[in-house]
């Protein structure tokens, strides 16, 4: 294995910059401690690493890695003040399956050095004495935050994958296993500091409209988030594990889950699924069972275990594997993180749609199309209820009905043959197409996991929200130096107040 070069040894190369990104050469001279790399730089391959190798088909103008707020400000002011302005994309601590932070004409601002977390003092006027807040840097990932909070006796809402960036996940919606009890990522955003194109930092304490936008559409449109303040809670007693069922019982599992949902799921419960093919068990459904206890009493732990038994009784089915037990949020997310990390790096093909229900037609699509072997392909099923579906006019995120996000995700391994890659991509496309043909997909979708060509801002957010977001974009980024955020806005069509890909 190639030796990993320590970050302290990384440096810009004026020769490659002069040849490959001459517009950024002066920034390298003005800010010699800021790392700026292009493809010929000896460190570029390691710095540029992607989870999805298909995203390597396009390269950015250059990657800029500031190590401090001052270096970040210098880079932002330089790019926005250059004639013509150099557009910027923003990469936080995580990754995007579609590589939307890579644009050939743009400098990618890579925030991997901004990994910090500070526990904030609770204010006497706080609505509940049990809730606290932390301020996190834009480079921190979910598993890094879990590890930091666990030692302080705290816990926070995140998604499944530990390698996902906290800021991007939170600002773009944020589905997760704790959504029923704690809400989505957007529901836990308390504030942010955002660096504008002129280098000034705007705090959402002074701009309620910006806070509203951050809660659902804050992935890079309005500047660079240099601090996100999020709600955390005392570490609860926690029940979690995986229930594994054979795919041949998909009708029982999925229709039984839907029947429980129709009855009304407890907010304590989190139940989301992956449907894949394993070497040991073949085609299978993995149901991630979590239960956040209301208190530390044994009675509330018993409530969680009793609900698991109710779930199994409803399904009338014994799982092939049952790992559900009392654990901790950190321990369970470490387990999930390890399983995902072992298979993430490869050739991804992904799609996503939202559904109101798991109907017989939808279940039929799943049963007809088991995931291919030889990789880590799976159908991801996110589901929200409880706190996550409560209306909130302080957030631009507006998809507040109970629904599922169903995402076929095919991952061929790094050594995959052309045929393997073709098979996995075709499987993703068949699942997506057949799901659409049921006529049951909702207009609103989840931008973070949807193909760019399937994203429509008006469908996803609604015309009134798009108009308000566009006006704020005009106000905070009139020169459109951050043109590649999510959702994407077109400055040339701003007079029509329309957003589009």
UniProtKB/TrEMBL annotation:
<dbReference type="InterPro" id="IPR006094">
    <property type="entry name" value="Oxid_FAD_bind_N"/>
</dbReference>
<protein>
    <submittedName>
        <fullName>Uncharacterized protein</fullName>
    </submittedName>
</protein>
<dbReference type="InterPro" id="IPR016167">
    <property type="entry name" value="FAD-bd_PCMH_sub1"/>
</dbReference>
<dbReference type="GO" id="GO:0071949">
    <property type="term" value="F:FAD binding"/>
</dbReference>
<keyword id="KW-0274">FAD</keyword>
<keyword id="KW-0285">Flavoprotein</keyword>
<dbReference type="InterPro" id="IPR036318">
    <property type="entry name" value="FAD-bd_PCMH-like_sf"/>
</dbReference>
<dbReference type="InterPro" id="IPR016166">
    <property type="entry name" value="FAD-bd_PCMH"/>
</dbReference>
<comment type="similarity">
    <text>Belongs to the oxygen-dependent FAD-linked oxidoreductase family.</text>
</comment>
<dbReference type="InterPro" id="IPR050416">
    <property type="entry name" value="FAD-linked_Oxidoreductase"/>
</dbReference>
<dbReference type="Pfam" id="PF01565">
    <property type="entry name" value="FAD_binding_4"/>
</dbReference>
<dbReference type="InterPro" id="IPR016169">
    <property type="entry name" value="FAD-bd_PCMH_sub2"/>
</dbReference>
<keyword id="KW-0560">Oxidoreductase</keyword>
<dbReference type="GO" id="GO:0016491">
    <property type="term" value="F:oxidoreductase activity"/>
</dbReference>
């Amino acid at each position: 294995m190639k030796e990993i070069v320590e970050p302290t040894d990384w440096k810009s190369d004026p020769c490659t910059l002069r040849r490959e990104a001459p517009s950024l050469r002066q920034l390298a001279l003005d800010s010699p401690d800021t790392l700026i790399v292009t493809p010929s730089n000896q460190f570029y391959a390691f710095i540029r690493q992607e989870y999805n190798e298909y995203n390597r088909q396009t390269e950015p103008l250059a990657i800029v890695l500031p190590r401090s707020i001052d270096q970040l400000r210098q880079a932002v002011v330089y790019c926005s003040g250059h004639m013509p302005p150099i557009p910027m994309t923003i990469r936080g601590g995580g990754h995007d399956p579609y590589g939307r932070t890579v644009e050939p004409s743009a400098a990618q601002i890579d925030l991997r050095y901004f990994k910090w977390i500070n526990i904030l003092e609770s204010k006497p006027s706080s609505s509940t004495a049990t809730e606290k807040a932390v301020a996190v840097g834009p480079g921190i990932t979910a598993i890094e935050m879990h590890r930091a909070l666990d030692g302080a006796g705290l816990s926070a809402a995140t998604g499944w994958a530990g390698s996902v960036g906290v800021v991007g996940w939170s600002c773009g919606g944020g589905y997760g296993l704790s959504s029923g009890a704690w809400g989505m990522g957007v529901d836990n955003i308390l504030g942010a500091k955002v660096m504008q194109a002129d280098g000034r930092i705007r705090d959402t304490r002074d701009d309620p409209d910006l806070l509203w936008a951050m809660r659902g559409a804050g992935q890079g449109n309005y500047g660079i988030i240099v601090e996100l303040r999020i709600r955390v809670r005392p570490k609860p007693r926690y029940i979690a594990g995986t229930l594994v069922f054979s795919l041949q019982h998909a009708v029982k599992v999925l229709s039984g889950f839907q029947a429980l949902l129709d009855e009304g799921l407890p907010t304590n419960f989190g139940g989301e699924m992956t449907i894949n093919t394993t070497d040991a068990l073949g085609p299978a459904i993995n149901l991630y069972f979590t239960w956040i206890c209301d208190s530390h009493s044994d009675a509330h732990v018993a409530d969680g275990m009793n609900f698991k038994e109710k779930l199994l009784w409803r399904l009338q089915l014994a799982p092939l594997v049952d790992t559900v037990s009392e654990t901790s949020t950190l321990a369970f997310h470490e387990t999930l993180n390890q399983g995902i990390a072992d298979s993430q790096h490869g050739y991804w093909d992904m799609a996503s749609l939202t559904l109101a229900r798991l109907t017989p037609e939808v279940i039929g699509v799943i049963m007809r199309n088991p995931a291919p072997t030889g990789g880590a392909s799976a159908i991801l099923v996110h589901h929200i209820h409880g706190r996550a579906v409560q209306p909130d006019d302080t957030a631009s995120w507006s998809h507040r009905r109970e629904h599922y996000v169903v995402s076929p995700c095919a991952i061929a391994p790094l050594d995959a043959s052309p045929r393997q890659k073709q098979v996995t991509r075709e499987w993703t496309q068949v699942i997506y197409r057949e799901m659409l043909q049921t006529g049951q997909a909702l207009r609103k979708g989840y931008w973070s996991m949807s193909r760019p060509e399937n994203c429509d801002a008006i469908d996803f957010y609604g015309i009134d929200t798009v108009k308000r977001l566009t006006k704020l974009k005009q106000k905070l980024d009139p020169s459109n130096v951050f043109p590649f955020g999510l959702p994407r806005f077109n400055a040339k069509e701003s007079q029509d107040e329309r957003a589009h890909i």
